[in-house]
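Continuing the series of single-chain predictions for the mutant panel. This is the parent chain; the variants come on the following pages.
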Amino acid sequence: MAVDLKPTAGMAEAARTGLRLHNEGKSGDGLKPETVRRANIIAAREELTEDHVREMNAWFARHEADRRPGWNKPGDETPGFVAWMLWGGDAGRTWSADKVEQMDRESERSESMDASNIERRDWEFAEDGGAVVETRADGRPVLTGYAVRYNTLSVDLGGFRETILPGAFDKVLSRQRGKQDVVALFNHDPNQLLGRTSSGTLELTSDDKGLRYSVVLPNTELGRTIGELVARSDLRGSSFAFTVEPRGEQWEPGEDGKPRRSIREVSGLFDVSVVTHPAYPSSTTSVARRSLEAWLASQETVDVPAAAVLTDLRPAMAACLRLRAARLRSFLRGKTG
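Parent structure:
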């Protein structure tokens, strides 16, 4: 269940007070423009991001010592008081602490999902480049690449095809930053560890292309071997393990006749891997296939408005769609047509 991150009326009132005092020149020279921009969002009661709320909670914790008698004296307000109000005041301090607790509980709930709900996808490196190893100024080798590319249609995953949409990892990366541990592996093997987010040796980011990873390779036989294999282009793809809740996916008929799954929000991210041969074993898609079966079953029950639309279609087209769905359900259940 998503956590409501809309600021309260008390926070909005405090932010408006802070903005007024700022406009009167009482905020000092050290105020960042981003703080003023965020205050305008709070004043308008527009929903904040999880990153913003965690940052807000951390800011209040750092600046608790700034509270002192007389700091809010009318006409003589201190810059510390102005900043406190811009962040939402006392209402914002209490609210952000509560929201961080809620987000942590939601994250723990997602993390505790049964292992049978974890899916894995392998992706071949794109033609415009795969993983690369670069040497940092401190001499450490860093492996970078994409675990997945957005808006890329998968191969047939056992009766359906899949696309991961831009932004699908935004919320899970925001929720997991500094909290949940994601590991980088070689060939999916937990014994072949390359790095992890909790130690700072793995960094995950989402850009317009996809989910990008940067791993500081360990000074071990495995790390040196991976560096050499990447330099020789012997490794052919990447992989990642994830979970998706029903609200994070959408099913629809594809142009090729196969159902299409669009993933718009990933709920959990557990590992990324570089792999020798990208593969699409059916065992990694069992969760998605259960979701597909549920979607196909829902298509058997047509409500009244949908039925009215269906009658406007040519009878042959409607019959074809029903037959295709029936055959696909039979295939997924291991029956012969």
